[in-house]
User: Which sequence fits this backbone?
């Protein structure tokens, strides 16, 4: 499978308030293949949002390279093509909804791309169906729950037909039900073929990914399958991160001498291991 994202020795520095250099990312080399679901975790300030912004050319590397579908984000002539390939969803659903009716909101992106009206209508229908929000097409977004609003925001991005979705803590402001709606939607879209980069501080969400990338102080500290990452309970805790409850219980029981496999990361796996 082809690479959709390729970061090469990416470094990003911001100008701090007193003119000092704030190093947000250093030495990041990472590739994401088409069809992959990559979760990105890391404590506050570890550089996750800065990384996400590079994937959509919202900011440019201080040094190193960021390639999207082979296009260099530093090439001003390619910015629109890049933004069409990579759709972004942010934390706060209220900041992403621009129109007073759901269907107008979803149409906003393709309208800006200059898509013809009949085609826009088709895309809105399709995008709302993909996030299970067809019944709300004519509703006002302000009446929706947080999870529904985020799904409308995702539909707005899908209407631009991106190859890749980048979501920066899309469930941080949602209740457990809204979180489940959003994660289920994203997982299903991924199974249907779209590449996903999913930033989260909920470890249970990262368990659904094919690969987990762990950021620490602007560096890519670890990457591997969820089982490879979440079995490193002590390492993650030193970094200030949680681990899924099942992984923690399993690690605790192993320390007590129980013979359990090291790849337990979900409640189901724990139950099966304990009650074969
Ligand atoms: P995360 O999303 O993991 O919390 P960020 O990418 O937002 O991390 O931030 C990484 C680092 O860059 C932090 O030290 C943060 O304070 C700093 N930073 C982020 N945005 C800016 C900015 N606009 N100006 C200066 N420093 C910033
Ligand atoms: Mg962030």
Assistant:
């Amino acid at each position: 499978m082809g690479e959709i994202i390729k970061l090469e020795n990416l470094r990003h520095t911001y100008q701090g308030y007193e003119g000092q250099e704030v190093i947000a990312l250093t030495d990041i080399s990472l590739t994401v293949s088409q069809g992959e679901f990559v979760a990105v975790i890391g404590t506050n300030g570890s550089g996750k949002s800065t990384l996400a912004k590079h994937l959509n050319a919202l900011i440019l590397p201080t040094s190193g390279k960021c390639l999207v579908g082979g296009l260099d984000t530093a090439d001003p002539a390619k910015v629109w093509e890049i933004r069409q390939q990579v759709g972004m969803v942010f934390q706060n659903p209220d900041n992403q909804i621009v129109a007073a009716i759901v269907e107008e909101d979803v149409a906003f992106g393709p309208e800006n791309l200059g898509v013809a009206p009949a085609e826009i209508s088709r895309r809105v229908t399709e995008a709302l169906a993909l996030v299970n929000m067809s019944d709300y097409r004519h509703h006002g977004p302000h009446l929706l729950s947080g999870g529904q609003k985020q799904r409308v925001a995702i539909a707005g991005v899908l209407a631009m037909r991106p190859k890749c979705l980048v979501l920066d803590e899309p469930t941080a402001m949602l209740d457990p039900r809204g979180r489940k709606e959003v994660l289920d939607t994203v997982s299903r879209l991924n199974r249907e073929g779209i590449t996903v980069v999913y930033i989260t501080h909920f470890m249970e969400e990262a368990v659904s990914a094919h690969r987990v990338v762990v950021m620490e102080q602007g560096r890519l500290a670890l990457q591997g399958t969820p089982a490879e990452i979440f079995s490193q309970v002590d390492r993650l805790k030193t970094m200030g991160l949680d681990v899924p409850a099942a992984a923690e219980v399993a690690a605790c029981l192993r320390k007590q001498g129980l013979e359990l496999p090291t790849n337990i990361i979900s409640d189901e796996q724990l139950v099966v291991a304990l009650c074969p």
Notes: The first strand starts at residue 3 and ends at 15. The two ends are 37 Å apart (CA to CA).
